[in-house]
Amino acid sequence: MRLCAWYLYGEKHRGYALNPVANFHLQNGAMMWRINWMGDTSPRGISGSCGIMVNYRYFVEDTASNSAVYLGTKQIKASEQVLSLVSQFQQSSKL
């Protein structure tokens, strides 16, 4: 879960999220909301993401500003749950 959070939040290509699905939602103003262990147990979900599923949440009043911040400064808006997992990864990682 920590590695997944880091991959989605911290791994970048030219400053933007490396994962194309994350990049799509973030460009459209979503917030990285929650990471769910075994959220997708379909064969495709297991093979593509080890069953992990991410929820992106759109707060209508924030989508324009979230999108502008992401596109302008490349900062990702994320919930405390996601940021906590990122922090745990950073503390324990040797990368």
TrEMBL record:
**Listed GO MF terms:** malonyl-CoA decarboxylase activity
The Malonyl-CoA decarboxylase C-terminal domain is annotated at 1-58
Q: Which InterPro entries match?
A: Malonyl_CoA_deC, Malonyl_CoA_deC_C, Malonyl_CoA_deC_C_sf
Q: Which GO terms describe its biological process?
A: acetyl-CoA biosynthetic process; fatty acid biosynthetic process; malonyl-CoA catabolic process
Query: Which Gene Ontology cellular component terms are annotated?
Result: mitochondrial matrix; peroxisomal matrix
Q: Which PANTHER family match?
A: MALONYL-COA DECARBOXYLASE, MITOCHONDRIAL, PTHR28641
The protein here is known as DCMC protein
What organism does this protein naturally occur in? Todus mexicanus (Puerto Rican tody)
| Gene coding for it | Mlycd
